[in-house]
Amino acid sequence: MTNATPGANSSPSASATIRPEEAAHFGKLAAEWWNPAGSSAMLHKLNPVRLGFVRDAIDRHWNSDPHGLKPLAGKTALDVGCGAGLLAEPLARLGAAVTGVDAASENIAAARAHADGSGLTIDYRDGELDSLGLGQFDLVTAMEVIEHVADKPAFVAGLARHLAPGGLMVLSCPNRTPQSRLLMIGLAEGVGAIPKGTHNWDDFITPDELALLLAGAGLAMGNPSGIAMSVTKGLHLSDNLALNYIVTATHGG
Length: 253
Description:
By secondary structure, this protein is an alpha/beta fold.
């Protein structure tokens, strides 16, 4: 459950993780975030795949009924890099008390407006995670975020500080492979399927690198699942980690 003591997890000496240029890039996309045919169309295709993994991870971690409608009832969730709420809203519908954090104030404004229109109560904040005085959460998610931050060890350490004992973390990230350079940057950004300038291939993280970052923050990484693309299946969970992957983490020991 949440430790809601103000400032309990803030770290005044923590490194800044937000890159202003990244926040500005995504802030410009805020108005179209919820348009499945707009600039975030790829996220709308990706979100059901991520949600399937998250739901399965929740059921396994807390031994919940896979057919239950509210497996997160009585639990708290923190979505870091929440954008305009594509993941935060489904987590709220699964029963969680959700807090969403994003670097771009424009995204938070769009997220609040959409949640209000959907009748959902979600606590949205903009700014550096460690400066917001939030407590600990049962579930912490950060989807397609770590490749955009300035200080990756500091970012992961911040996530770990906000994960309650016995909690579950879920992260996704593009893998740094020749395939991801070709498909995600060369092809997808080249034809406009992903807004140009969204990714820097050198910032992509391999599963081994992510495991080391998590271990440095006292977390143990689960087995990653690939997010692959095919003509017949579209985006889907796979054993192929070459393009993108999603993974759980828990407190080690």
